[in-house]
Automatic annotation (TrEMBL):
It is an enzyme of class 2 (transferase). InterPro entries: DNA_methylase_N4/N6, DNA_methylase_N6_adenine_CS, N4/N6-MTase_EcoPI_Mod-like, SAM-dependent_MTases_sf. This is site-specific DNA-methyltransferase (adenine-specific). Its EC number is 2.1.1.72. Residues 70-364 form the DNA methylase N-4/N-6 domain. Keywords: Methyltransferase, S-adenosyl-L-methionine, Transferase. One of its GO terms (molecular function) is N-methyltransferase activity. The lineage of its organism: Bacteria, Pseudomonadati, Spirochaetota, Spirochaetia, Leptospirales. GO terms for biological process: methylation. Signal peptide: none annotated. SUPFAM superfamilies: S-adenosyl-L-methionine-dependent methyltransferases. Belongs to the N(4)/N(6)-methyltransferase family. It catalyses: a 2'-deoxyadenosine in DNA + S-adenosyl-L-methionine = an N(6)-methyl-2'-deoxyadenosine in DNA + S-adenosyl-L-homocysteine + H(+).
């Protein structure tokens, strides 16, 4: 039997059903935007974005401007556990959960920069399926780590085996470079205790690192003589970690330690001042990054005990993610904002941020929390550790309504809530133009290149008006005209392309669909399976 290559692929009911998303425009509400009254630091950031609306539509709205620009994405999506939470309905049927996550992850992956990475909190219920889904979307080579967060520090006697951890999956756009891109973790005083200075070395605290390495290398198998005359060779199965000339250089610089009595095997002296940080690893202990009790106390501190989230994440956990994945000034995105922890921590750490939230807690929790951060009143979480004083700000946006609506006869028409500026911006986004209205040229609403422009109007254009436009555009430029009606043939004006609205955009997407959320009541019913659940959610083989 001939060998054949197989590709593992996760299959589920409705996998091929994909939404045709409308790229909405974002409308700022200045009354809900908030900024510090004065600069606190030179690098204060004021153009952060808080977006209220369905997170899939919001991601689609961000796609044109932010594709390839986000350095770090962290999301904490509903885990599909079957539990009912106050702010989320977390019991989405498995196949629907996979479809809804797939649709969001596809856009999130496109938003990442070439040096970007995505970090996803998840528990055991969906983690294996999410791993395979991410492998399929991002490529298996993009996988970096499955970090284990110790969310609890006490045992639960009610469970068969205590649930003490969650996962944070990490995928990077450039996994080969991620080691060079990511940051190390700062060393804590507890971790620094192994560095001593028993000999009053003027260079400060140090530790001895055994000068051996695994394996056999001929030029690293030399004899070492201690100051007391004791001879040492590498232990069996090992060699010295450096060649002899390098060892002699280190010895001449006083960087070799032979133990208190001077008879021991050589150790290379490493000073605490030389330690740039610790390489991250996949075990994240609660005493290092916080736990669920700590997270709840942070929420209680901000909002009181009456109205608190059931499953918040501690600020130290987000600090760990953002520390590894980004630098000051980089852009961090969270499309499942929840109580706003990601934005709050990113703000305190000097990162730019975008958050998306649909629930009313965007107004009752996130905005008040961010105001406290900006005013310097939030001294919980990581604030005291990093000496947070406040500053900066954010802009609040909501999704515009659907561009098209049906009139009483069932015909598609331009939504009455759209003014001329909103219409021009929406059409630019739909046609792939950058919205940039000119102050001096009335027909330049946007551009795709330096010589290709777009003009959007609700007028019916006559042949004379089109002739005049054609003359102004000239032979070196082109203009796409979107209007309600026109009297001419395309061939009459070679530098003009003329389309009617709404016919010009009717087929581009699905209109009037405002909610793609993970709330069960907003989802279509899945067809009844004919096979068993185990057969349906399986790994299919492709030749």
């Amino acid at each position: 039997m001939a060998n054949k290559k197989t590709k593992l692929e996760l299959t589920w009911i409705g996998k091929d059903n994909r939404p045709r998303l409308e790229p909405r425009i974002l409308l700022e509400d200045p009354e809900k935007s908030y900024h510090a009254k004065h600069r606190v630091a030179k690098n204060d950031i004021f153009d952060n974005r808080l977006i209220f609306g369905d997170n899939l539509l919001a991601l689609k709205a961000l796609e044109q401007e932010f594709t390839g620009k986000v350095k770090c994405i962290y999301i904490d999506p509903p885990y599909n556990t079957g539990s009912a939470f106050e702010h989320y309905d977390d019991g989405v049927e498995h196949s629907l959960w996979l479809s809804l996550m797939r649709d969001r992850l596809e856009i999130l992956w496109r938003l990442l920069s070439d040096e970007g990475s995505i970090w996803i909190s998840i528990d055991d219920n969906e983690m294996p399926y999410l791993r395979v889904l991410l492998d399929e979307l991002c490529g298996r080579q993009a996988f970096i780590a499955s970090n284990i967060w110790q969310k609890r520090y006490s045992r639960e006697n009610r469970e068969a085996i205590g649930d003490v951890h969650e996962y944070i999956l990490v995928y990077a756009k450039n996994s080969n470079r991620f080691k060079d891109i990511r940051n190390k973790l700062p060393i804590t005083e507890e971790q620094a205790k192994i560095y001593k200075n028993s000999n009053n070395d003027p260079k400060g605290r140090w530790r001895g690192i055994p000068m051996t390495a695994q394996g056999f290398r001929q030029n690293q198998m030399y004899e070492v003589i201690t100051p007391t005359g004791v001879s040492h060779f590498p232990p069996e199965g090992r060699c010295w970690s450096t060649i002899e000339s390098e060892f002699l250089r280190l010895k001449s610089e006083g960087r070799i330690w032979f133990g208190k009595d001077g008879n021991g095997q050589p150790n290379i002296i490493r000073y605490l001042s030389e330690v740039e940080g610790l390489v991250p690893w996949t075990w994240w202990e609660s005493n290092e990054v916080g736990h669920t009790d700590e997270a709840k106390k942070e929420i209680h501190y901000l909002f009181g005990k009456v109205d608190a989230f059931d499953t918040p994440k501690p600020e130290r956990l987000l600090e760990r993610v953002i520390q590894i994945a980004s630098n000051v000034g980089d852009l961090v995105l969270d499309s499942f904002a929840g109580s706003g922890t990601t934005g709050a921590v990113a703000h305190k750490m000097g990162r730019r941020w975008i958050m998306v939230e649909l629930g009313e807690h965007c107004h009752t929790h996130i905005i008040p929390r961010l105001k406290k951060v900006i005013d310097g009143e939030d001294q919980g979480g990581i604030s005291k550790t990093i000496d947070w004083k406040g500053g900066g700000g954010f802009r609040y946006y909501k999704l515009a309504p659907s561009l098209l609506e049906k009139d009483k006869w069932g015909n598609w028409i331009i939504n009455k809530q759209y003014n001329s500026a909103m219409l021009a911006e929406a059409i630019c986004k739909l046609e792939g133009f950058k919205y940039a209205p000119s102050d001096s040229v009335y027909w330049q609403h946007g551009y795709s290149t330096e010589t290709d422009f777009i003009y959007v109007t609700t007028q019916a254009l006559s042949r004379d008006q089109l002739s005049l436009l054609s003359q102004e555009v000239g032979n070196e430029r082109t203009l796409l005209i979107i209007c309600t009606a026109f009297r001419a043939q395309d061939s009459d004006f070679p530098n003009l392309t003329i389309k009617k609205i709404p016919n010009a955009v009717l087929s581009k997407c699905e209109w009037g669909h405002d909610d793609y959320s993970l709330q069960v009541e907003n989802l279509p019913s899945a067809p009844k399976p004919e096979k068993s659940q185990l057969e349906l959610f399986d790994f299919a083989e492709e030749s």
